[in-house]
């Protein structure tokens, strides 16, 4: 799992009721004879003609074609929730790294700063990453692509070298891990299930939400896969 450790280095359902966002309160509405009724929120000097509520996602009830499929789904759920924080960390660190590197003109100082970040992440997370299984490692690679918009292979290639990226991919393949793989919930059913697991976990407060860098709509995906197969069933590697 050494190559995954390196890669990571470089990187409610909301309660909806008639209540307004937490911390907001409304004074009495102001009526305008020409335009109707306006509302003022504390701390906001601009009147509003409507009250905006946060969007709500209504999740479909999961149905499985067999008990075996149900077991596979919940295994995938456990592994996804386990590795997601590492993918989120990768995205956070990549954003931080890119922002700071843009301000450093010296190539030597850029390399020096990159090494500092590398050592920091190694000390904090390497022991945990080594405990990942093969399937957890592959899910992590997919989620890194989800969070950053770049495959793990391209991240290594961009931040290190093409040869190093090739070597990491070759090594990873020995463990049945493809660091070139993309996250494609619109085309791969298992990836959609991973996205479904994430969205439910975000809504339940089990995971901290971080929007995907990829362009897809969860609701549209759900409708697509429901039309393709009315029951949740999928094939996954053992």
Supply the key terms.
mainly alpha, 238 residues, globular, 2 domains, 3% strand, two-stranded antiparallel sheet
Reconstruct the topology from this structure.
Elements: H1 2-9, E1 30-32, E2 36-38, H2 67-101, H3 107-129, H4 134-148, H5 152-159, H6 162-174, H7 189-204, H8 218-228
Antiparallel strand pairs: 1-2
Structural features, described:
It comes from Galbibacter orientalis DSM 19592. Pfam families: DUF4294. The protein is mainly α. The protein is 54% helix and 3% strand. The chain has helices at 2-9, 67-101, 107-129, 134-148, 152-159, 162-174, 189-204, 218-228, and strands at residues 30-32, 36-38. A hairpin with a 3-residue loop joins strand 1 (30-32) and strand 2 (36-38). The chain is globular, with a radius of gyration of 22 Å. The model is unreliable at 12-28 and 231-238 (pLDDT under 50).
The major β-sheet equals: 2 strands, antiparallel
| Gap from first CA to last CA | 18 Å
Could you give the order of the helices and strands? HEEHHHHHHH
Q: What does the average pLDDT come to? A: 75
Q: What is the compact description of this entry?
A:
By secondary structure, this protein is mainly alpha-helical. It has helices spanning 2-9, 67-101, 107-129, 134-148, 152-159, 162-174, 189-204, 218-228; strands at residues 30-32, 36-38. The chain contains 8 helices and 2 strands.
């Amino acid at each position: 799992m050494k190559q995954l450790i390196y890669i990571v280095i470089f990187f409610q359902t909301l309660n909806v009721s008639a209540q307004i966002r937490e911390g907001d309160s409304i004074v009495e509405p102001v009526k305008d004879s020409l335009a109707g009724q306006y509302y003022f929120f504390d701390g906001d000097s601009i009147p509003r003609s409507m009250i905006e509520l946060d969007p709500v996602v209504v999740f479909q009830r999961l149905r499985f074609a067999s008990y075996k499929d149900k077991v596979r789904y919940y295994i995938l759920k456990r592994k996804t929730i386990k590795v997601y924080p590492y993918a989120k960390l990768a995205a956070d660190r990549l954003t931080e790294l890119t922002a700071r590197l843009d301000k450093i003109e010296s190539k030597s100082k850029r390399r020096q700063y990159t090494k500092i970040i590398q050592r920091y992440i190694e000390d904090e997370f390497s022991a945990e990453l080594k405990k990942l299984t093969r399937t957890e490692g592959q899910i992590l690679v997919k989620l890194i692509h989800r969070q950053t918009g770049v495959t793990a292979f391209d991240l290594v290639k961009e931040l290190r070298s093409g040869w190093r990226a090739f070597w990491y991919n070759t090594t990873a393949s020995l463990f049945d891990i493809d660091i070139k793989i993309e996250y494609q919930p619109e085309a791969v059913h298992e990836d959609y299930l991973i996205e479904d697991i994430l969205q439910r976990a975000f809504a339940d407060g089990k995971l901290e939400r971080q929007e995907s860098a990829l362009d897809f709509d969860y609701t549209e995906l759900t409708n697509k896969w429901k039309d393709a197969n009315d029951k949740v069933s999928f094939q996954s590697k053992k």
